[in-house]
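If your schedule permits, I should be very grateful for your opinion on a structural question. I have a record of one protein: its chain in single-letter code and its fold written as discrete structure tokens. Would you kindly read the sequence against the tokens and tell me how you understand this chain to fold? Thank you for your consideration; the sequence and its tokens are set out here.


***
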Amino acid sequence: MKILITGGAGHVGRTLRRELAGRFELVRIFDMVAAEPIGPNEESVVGDIADIAAVENATRGMDAVIHLAAEPNEAPFGIILQANVVGTWNVYEAARRCGAKRVIFGSSNHAVGFYPRSQRINETVPVKPDSRYGLSKCWGEAVAQLYADKYGVKSLLLRIGNAAATPGSARALAIWVSGRDLAQLVTIGLEHPDIHCNVVYGVSNNAACWYDNSAAYRLGYKPQDRAEDYTDAAMAAEAGQQHEPADLYFQGGPFCAIEYEGGPIPPAE
């Protein structure tokens, strides 16, 4: 299989490349900067995700796409529009034009960030974006559904939690995903015969998790790691930090607190 990784020079992209090394015939990395170092079965293509011609050129000859390229933080709408909205549309349209039949979309927990931490949610809940960034991920999920239903481009939508090397906060203890667990989910998305347009949560086997990830388990996901193994370090990193009420109450954390004017918030449980 030949795969394209958009945003493959970023943190999550590098992590996946390391975990997936040697599994595929070719891994093409598309990013704004050259990917370094390059593995023996990798090649780097520099380009802008908002440029459909560049994206189509990078997709040509690929069997599948892992789409990670994005503005990863809350930002003015113009920045989100080009990187996350136009960019995601370009990826799916390029996949359709070039015959790539699978896309693994790096969605986010921020697509459902305005659910309270006291509520355990699954993949069927209505989206509740917590930011312009989260809203762009809802758009991406909708684009994926359209292209699956209309054009046969199948997708696994990964609502990624915290993909750091280790969880570094109390919130991360609920939503952390290890590199090898994320790579396992990606592999399922690339290879499982029953994928159409499926939503799963990109989290490890965390005791404090806010998500019912049964949909992932039904596809064969067996996470190997758990955040609570890093509890002491995460809580030490948390010590002394100040949080807004919206940060502590909602699952989206600090993204919910940005510009929050939504009214009184119950005390965090």
